[in-house]
Structure formats: structure tokens, C-alpha cells
Specification:
Layout lengths: L11 E4 L7 H7 L5 E4 L2 H4 L2 H9 L9 E2 L8 H13 L4 E6 L1 H16 L8 E2 L9 E5 L11 E6 L4 E6 L7 E4 L9 H20 L18 H23 L4 H21 L3 H13 L3 H16 L4 H12 L8 H15 L15 H9 L2 H4 L8 H11 L1
Parallel strand pairs: 1-9, 2-3, 2-4, 4-6, 5-8, 6-9
Antiparallel strand pairs: 7-8
Helix pairs in contact: 4-5, 6-7, 6-8, 6-10, 7-8, 9-10, 9-13, 10-12, 10-15, 11-12, 13-15
Length: 395
């Protein structure tokens, strides 16, 4: 039995409205002189971001801004950003945007320091040492990429999402300024918010660290600290997600969701994500749905499958949504609460609605079960037949 766990996160996290304004000072402290900014046109038009970019004029010119970020970024996107960074001899990378932009920034930081191409580092623990400094500035409340040790790209040729995982990918600084999420449209708020919920629930329900193998694992499994973070994240999401979705100018709700996403990121990047993500990776690559919506759609179906292994935990989740003691809640209550949340947020509930064809389900199952780092940590390890059943239920 494993008796040792460890916890890791970004070494410096600054949280609060207006904290982005301290970016210049943070760069000076770290003696960063030629950063490249990885972002996209929508994010760069946010007034607070525009203001900070202007304040960096002495060290950041137009050539040091890569604005080619996109939702669900491809390997080609990362390669373009890498070329831009090399052209200006960048000494650090600032990722501003959703998790997609931050993930691209992480890959750029790897190549700046170690060379090669993005595909040299796909998988777990393939980065040989520290990378160029990464500063993460999230503008959505969901992915937790600002504190995670992973980056996800889409391989368009293989039509699958590929991950790079390494302790060296955690940003050295996370600037979480909730005001940057104020302009998020309802759909982005919904998709990113339910993504945070998936992160928290998977972190909470994954296998315990005691039962995990000690060698070559990407994640620790769940333990007390990650469970505390995940439960508080779920509590905040219950309080604030619908408010932020329905009233985008509700600053307290926006602040609460940014905090919830941060806590969920700290939890899952240690205890792991699981079967929801394993299934979403091939589905997202095939349908080009947003990662958050794909995860949110799959969540209740995976909770149903995991129910025999984590009934008590699901009752605790239900108690948050129902405001009742867990002793009088059931696992089914938690699953039903997620379905109700999907409906309120306009999240699609059937895979066919994403454009996935019935004859693609078998391929999805085969690709999902091959993601060993997720199979080894998920609450209930599935067979290929189990995955077929889950996908049929969700179809």
C-alpha cells in the first residue's frame, strides 16, 4: 500500500480583481526582458488586457504578441507560436486567455528551452528539465491550466487530443484576475464552469492515493488535501455558476467561479482527472465541441458508472446541491443534480447532438481505454465493453 502523497502547484498565485496590473512588476522581479505573449484577438481586446499590454511597451512590442490562439488548439497552432517566440528570442512566455492559450504557452516554453518539436514531448514525464518561465493569466473560469502540469493539443492528422504532462509545465506565476471573466458570454461561462465541476468531481472520486501504484504515475490519486479543495470548489460552483451564467455582471459570482476553477485545478492536477476526460479527448477531436461541453455532457453518465465505487462521495456531492445532510441523500441525487445543471446551462446531453456518428463510438472507446494514465486513476476501471455501454447510454 502506498503511504506517501505529495502536493504541487504553481509556486506563486496572485488572486483578485486588478492583480493583472502587477504584471510589469512581476516581470521585473524575475528579470524577464523579452517575453512573448500567447493570446488571441478576442482576449487582447479586453480593456484590462489592452491596458496591461500598453504598460509593457518598453519590453513587449507587436512582434512579441502571438495572437493566433484558438479554442481547442492544434499542433499547428503550437508550432506557429513556437516560430513566433524563436523569432524574437523570447526568454519567457505569458499565456493570456482560456486554457487553450495557456496550454500553447506551456508548449512554447518547453521548446524555447529544450528544442525539438511539440510531439517530442507528448506523454508523461518526457521533459528533461526546467522550461522557460511561464506566466499564466486565465480569462475564463474553468480549466485550471494556470496551476496544472499538463497541456493538451489536438493532432488533426490522427484526429485525437494529445497531452504533455510534466512537473516542469506548472506556471511559475498564476495571475488570476476575475475581472477578466466579466465579459465572458453565457455559453463560455457555462462550458468553462461545468468543466471546473468535472475537474472537482473527478478529483474527488478518483482512486485513493493508498491504492495507487508508486511508479510512473502522472497523478497521485485522491487524498485529504485534494478532497478538501475539490469539495470547496463544488460548493462555490453550486453557489455561483448559475448566477454568473444568468447575470454576467455579477462580480461576486465571477469572483467565486474564478476561485472555484483555481481550487479545482489545484485538486485535479494532483489527484488526477479520469474517465470523463478519457472519453472526451477522442470525442472532442472528432466533433470539435468545446472541451467543457464535452466533459459536462459525459459527467453524469460516468458518475452512474462509478457509483458502486464512490457512493458515499456522491452522497456528499448531492448534499451540496440539495442543501441536505449526506445521510439522507443518494448517489442518484448527485447524478440528477448534474442533469438539472446541464439543462439550466444549455449543455447538450446526448453525443448525437455534438455530431458524433453512431459508427464512431467503437473508435472512441478504443482510444479512451488506451489512455493508461487516466485508466489507472479513475474510480472504477472500465473494460472496453463498459465504455461501449457508457457511450451508448450517452448517445
Amino acid at each position: 500500500m502506498n503511504t506517501v502523497w505529495q502536493f504541487a502547484t504553481s509556486p506563486t498565485i496572485r488572486f483578485g480583481r486588478g492583480c493583472l496590473g502587477g504584471l510589469t512588476h512581476c516581470l521585473t522581479q524575475r528579470q524577464i526582458r523579452r517575453p512573448i505573449v500567447v493570446s488571441d484577438p478576442v482576449v487582447l481586446s479586453i480593456p484590462a488586457v489592452e491596458s496591461v499590454i500598453r504598460s509593457l511597451a518598453q519590453i513587449v512590442d507587436s512582434k512579441q504578441i502571438f495572437a493566433g490562439g484558438q479554442a481547442e488548439p492544434t499542433v499547428a497552432t503550437a508550432e506557429a507560436a513556437i516560430a513566433a517566440a524563436k523569432a524574437v528570442d523570447a526568454d519567457a512566455v505569458i499565456g493570456i486567455g482560456g486554457g487553450s492559450n495557456i496550454d500553447v504557452a506551456k508548449i512554447v516554453a518547453v521548446i524555447l528551452h529544450h528544442g525539438g518539436s511539440a510531439d517530442n514531448y507528448f506523454g508523461f514525464d518526457r521533459i528533461p528539465g526546467p522550461v522557460a518561465p511561464i506566466i499564466a493569466v486565465p480569462t475564463t473560469a474553468g480549466t485550471g491550466s494556470e496551476v496544472s502540469h499538463s497541456a493538451v493539443l489536438t493532432d488533426q492528422q490522427a484526429r485525437v487530443k494529445v497531452s504533455t504532462l510534466s512537473p516542469f509545465l506548472r506556471p511559475c506565476l498564476a495571475l488570476v484576475d476575475p475581472s477578466l471573466t466579466d465579459s465572458c458570454p453565457p455559453q463560455v461561462t457555462a462550458h468553462s464552469g461545468i468543466d471546473a465541476l468535472v475537474h472537482a468531481i473527478e478529483a474527488l472520486t478518483n482512486r485513493s492515493f493508498e491504492s495507487m501504484e508508486t511508479d510512473s504515475k502522472a497523478y497521485e490519486g485522491s487524498y485529504g488535501l485534494t478532497s478538501l479543495l475539490a469539495m470547496e470548489s463544488i460548493n462555490l460552483i453550486h453557489k455561483f455558476l448559475i448566477r454568473a451564467f444568468e447575470q454576467g455582471n455579477d462580480q461576486r459570482a465571477r469572483d467565486g467561479m474564478s476561485y472555484a476553477a483555481l481550487l479545482a485545478g489545484m485538486a485535479f492536477s494532483n489527484s488526477g482527472v479520469g474517465l470523463v476526460h478519457a472519453l472526451e479527448y477522442p470525442i472532442g477531436a472528432l466533433t470539435h465541441c468545446s472541451h467543457g461541453e464535452g466533459n459536462g455532457l459525459l459527467l453524469p453518465y460516468v458518475m452512474e458508472f462509478n457509483k458502486p465505487m464512490c457512493a458515499g462521495t456522491l452522497r456528499s456531492i448531492a448534499s451540496i446541491f440539495l442543501s441536505k445532510p449526506p445521510e439522507i441523500c443518494s448517489s442518484e441525487d448527485a447524478i440528477e443534480a448534474v442533469f438539472k445543471l446541464q439543462k439550466k446551462l444549455g449543455i447538450r446531453t446526448r453525443l448525437r447532438e455534438l455530431g458524433l456518428a453512431a459508427d464512431q463510438l467503437a473508435s472512441v472507446a478504443e482510444k479512451a481505454i488506451a489512455i493508461e494514465r487516466l485508466m489507472m486513476v479513475t474510480a472504477r476501471r472500465p473494460t472496453l465493453d463498459d465504455l461501449h455501454s457508457i457511450l451508448q447510454s450517452a448517445y
